[in-house]
Amino acid sequence: MIKMKNITKYYSTGFVKTFVLRDINLEIAEGEFVTIMGPSGAGKSTLLHIAGMLDTPSSGEYFFYDKEIHRLSERQRSEVHKNHIGFVFQSYHLIDDLTVYENLETPLLYKKVKGSERKSRVCDMLDKFHIVGKQKLFPNQLSGGQQQRVAVARALIIEPNLILADEPTGNLNSKEGEEVMKMFKELNESGTTIIQVTHSEEKAAYGNRIINLLDGWIQEEAT
């Protein structure tokens, strides 16, 4: 599914280059559950954002289903992202002035899904994530765990091939965090590819492969 060759990311300030990622070579197969770990500043989120086409590398090649992402325009990358990738953030990124129902419906509006199918998909997600009773509430009326459930449901409603999760349990208590991780595990077992960033070895254990980053380099991989 994913192949990265010599991916490097840096920011230039005057004549000084600050490197975030260095010569990343990585392959991720369809159906894997991969965890990216490392200390703060290691480049974890940057690598995830490049994988999700929310950021671009300074050099290197990125292939997604053999499509040369590094050669695409921003609009073309956005189209690939929209059709294949669901993103779950630590801070949920729900739209505050939309209800739960409307937050779930928004990605389908961007994809121009017809009204009847939108309603069907939203209702399926409300039921699957046990939030039917919350559909008319706004994000600030929900607990952290409930907000993250909505965020995961919103990522899944487009039926993505790949879920990217950036510290998805970072703002949750242990019980809520465990519920979200079990949800990811079930999604992966049903065929969805997942890449998560986490500091937690306990959360990393839900996946089948761990990639350790340090100062922008891949240090080691473990299963």
Which structural traits does this protein have?
alpha/beta; 29% strand; 35% helix; Rossmann fold; six-stranded mixed beta sheet; 10 strands
What does the model show?
The chain is α/β, with parallel strands linked by helices. The chain has one domain: P-loop containing nucleotide triphosphate hydrolases (Rossmann fold, 3-Layer(aba) Sandwich), CATH 3.40.50. It contains seven helices and ten strands. The chain has helices spanning 44-51, 74-84, 100-110, 115-128, 144-156, 174-189, 201-204; strands at 2-13, 16-28, 33-37, 59-64, 67-68, 85-89, 162-166, 193-197, 209-214, 217-222. It has a six-stranded mixed beta sheet, with helices on both faces.
Determine the structural class based on helices, strands and strand pairing: alpha/beta
> Rough shape?
globular
CATH homology superfamily: P-loop containing nucleotide triphosphate hydrolases
Low-confidence spans: none
Strand content: 25-35%
